[in-house]
Write a structure and sequence with these properties.
The protein has 370 residues and is mostly helical. It has one domain. It contains 16 helices and no strands. It has helices spanning 3-31, 39-43, 49-70, 77-101, 114-118, 128-131, 138-159, 167-189, 198-207, 215-229, 231-237, 241-258, 265-286, 292-295, 299-325, 333-369. Helix 4 (77-101) packs parallel to helix 15 (299-325) and helix 8 packs antiparallel against helix 9.
């Protein structure tokens, strides 16, 4: 791997590390009864860490496919599926097994049916009140739907020789997101807004469904399209790496005010795309040679980025188990947070060594034989 590519990965590794830290702190904030006083104000916007992951996935996955198209190669759905399968499924199935066979691992009382996890449909009609355990798997459902449809759409566009017109689909889907959120808000959430558990309906019909959460993925794909197919434009854009970082932070600040109450009409319709746009600017910064994110490598963020998937899968369960084991000890809330961070990283590292790494090696052997 050449030096330039490695530097670009450094920037994205920084962002992966930030994303998983932000998600961890948000879930610790909503799950833990023993949280530091400073945490609520800092972590309340942490739900957007998932949106950063979406932008990153959109950029990275589409970049792989766009590079093949750019080189005149036909996309192989089989090869793409094999790569994603061995990267995602083994660790996911182990985590599902932990939740179903070890009740101590469950951060809440009851699980959705197993088939909803195995078919990646758990995010559709998710009832947080009765089936809120392992609810964060909703974002994996969105990712899997993305992994299924993106290569199929690109293969179809290749066959029809419409690749150069594919940006119209991006625009259409982006506008569709606004329309479907307006419809979902007015038809499904608004009639329940005066009920005792109205927030459950907002999450069920607005927050979790894949069709409402495409913005981050579409922003990532758009960045990748410019990066791969419009080098002249990209060269001009990438001269302002640090400016894009500042711009991204400014947009995210605006989004935090807009989404202070997530369940308003404006936040429900415009909040997700605004968050995605802010993180999109930051991803542009991360892959621009003029940005400090691009230039500075870090073994710590690379390590955390490597474990980010495992941490995401297991952190709620590990936090719950850690609290249960240390419940009788009088531990300072800041120290308890640090202990939970350590146990989550340690558990994810074991998952990486025992499951992820061997299956990635197996993937390499299978692909090399084809």
């Amino acid at each position: 791997m050449d030096k330039n590519i490695q530097q670009k990965l450094y920037g994205l590794d920084h962002l992966r590390a930030v994303a998983i830290l932000y998600v961890f702190l948000f879930h610790y904030f909503i799950l833990s009864g023993r949280q530091p006083e400073w945490l609520p104000d800092f972590a309340k916007f942490g739900w957007t860490g998932v949106d950063l992951f979406f932008v990153l996935s959109g950029f990275l996955i589409s970049s792989q496919l766009f590079a093949q198209i750019k080189q005149g190669q036909n996309i192989s759905f089989k090869q793409f599926f094999l790569k994603r399968f061995f990267r995602i499924i083994p660790a996911f199935l182990v985590t599902v097994g932990l939740y179903f066979y070890f009740p101590l691992f469950r951060e809440k009382e009851s699980l959705p049916p197993l088939w909803k996890f195995l078919t990646f449909t758990q995010n559709l009609g998710l009832d947080l009140k009765n089936f809120g355990t392992f609810s964060h798997a909703w974002s994996l459902c969105v990712e899997e739907h993305f992994y299924l449809f993106l290569p199929l759409i690109l293969i179809l566009f290749q066959q029809l020789k419409l690749i150069k017109k594919s940006y119209w689909l991006l625009i259409t889907l982006f506008l569709f997101g606004f329309a479907i959120r307006v419809y979902s808000f007015n038809q499904f959430y608004l009639p329940k807004i005066d009920s005792d558990n109205s927030w459950l309906y907002w999450y069920k019909y607005i927050y979790y469904p894949t069709y409402n959460r495409l913005d981050g993925l579409l922003i990532g794909i758009s960045i990748s399209g410019v990066y791969q197919f419009l080098p002249t434009v990209w060269n001009k854009v990438s001269k302002y790496g640090n400016i894009f970082m500042i711009l991204g932070l400014a947009v995210l600040t605006s989004a935090s005010f807009l989404c202070y109450d997530q369940m308003t009409f404006k936040a429900s319709v415009f909040g997700f795309p605004l968050v995605a746009l802010g993180y999109g600017f930051i991803v542009v910064s991360a892959v621009s040679p003029t940005s400090f994110l691009y230039k500075q490598g870090s073994k710590i963020t690379t390590f955390i980025a490597t474990l980010s998937y495992g941490i995401y899968l297991t952190h709620k369960g590990v936090i719950h188990v850690t609290h249960q084991l240390l419940n009788d000890f009088k531990i300072d809330n800041n120290l308890m947070l640090l202990i939970c961070m350590t146990t989550c990283v340690a558990f994810a590292y074991l998952l990486h060594l025992i499951i992820e790494k061997p299956f990635m090696k197996l993937r390499s052997r299978i692909i090399e034989q084809k």
